[in-house]
Design brief:
Elements (H helix, E strand, L loop, with lengths): L9 H16 L5 E3 L8 H6 L4 H25 L4 E5 L8 E2 L2 H9 L3 E5 L9 H11 L5 E5 L4 E2 L11 E2 L1 E2 L1 H6 L7 H10 L3 E5 L5 H7 L5 E3 L1
Parallel strand pairs: 1-4, 2-3, 2-4, 5-9, 8-10
Antiparallel strand pairs: 6-7, 9-10
Helix pairs in contact: 1-3, 1-8, 5-7
């Protein structure tokens, strides 16, 4: 979305694609789960009277739109990419099949997982943990608008404290709004670390992966 109020900002999409290309050049295998909040937020729509299942289905379709746009940006700069959707739409992208996703990763392609988990009532965060586990990822990296986890919203509270490292139980117990509890619980049960960082700072993805960027670690 960039600085826009809605939709896609092509310059922002291209900039993020360049960052993924740099990281892929380091030899990192990358599986990406993209949200759709820049187009449609299911939870917000449900709060205004739309049935939650209907709203979530529309939101999942929005993630497919974003995924196809991001694939286009990656392939324009020479990065082999496959979009795999949890909702079957073969004229647009491949269906998500775990073994096929693994095969694409083995071949050096970036895999973009669209349509969340394919089920309403489950967030994109939960889908990201699920895909990370299915594709044997070493960690899940959550890209946000802030540079890590805080004890309260740093946008609303100037005295919010930065939390460099915290446990899954702390996130749930203190109700820290970084990911929904289903996602955190799934990560805890399978012991996959979560790294939270800001994607707004150019080059930050590479810095975080090299251990020099500011981020929070949930373990």
């Amino acid at each position: 979305m960039g600085d826009r109020d809605y939709g896609l900002d092509v310059k922002t999409v291209d900039r993020i694609a360049e960052e993924v290309k740099v990281v892929r050049g380091l030899g990192v295998e990358i599986c990406i789960v993209i949200g759709g909040g820049n187009i449609f937020r299911g939870v917000s729509a449900a709060a205004h009277g739309m049935h939650r299942a209907v709203a979530d289905n529309i939101g999942m379709l929005a993630t497919v739109m974003n995924s196809i746009a991001f694939q286009s940006s990656l392939e324009r700069i020479g990065v082999g990419t496959r979009v795999m959707s949890a909702i079957h739409m073969p004229n647009v992208c491949e269906p998500y099949i775990q073994r096929r996703a693994m095969r694409h990763l083995d071949k050096g392609r970036v895999v973009i997982c669209a349509a969340g988990s394919g089920n309403p009532y489950f967030t994109t965060d939960t889908a990201a943990i699920l895909r990370a586990l299915e594709t044997n990822c070493d960690s899940l990296i959550k890209a946000t608008k802030v540079d890590g986890v805080y004890d309260s919203d740093p946008v609303k509270n100037s005295n919010a404290q930065f939390l460099e490292k915290l446990s899954y139980d702390e996130v749930i117990g203190k109700d820290i709004k970084v990911m929904d509890h289903t996602a955190i619980t799934l990560a805890k049960e399978n012991n996959i670390p979560i790294i939270v960082f800001s994607l707004k700072e150019k080059g930050n993805l590479e810095k975080v992966l090299l251990g020099t960027g500011k981020c929070s670690l949930i373990v």
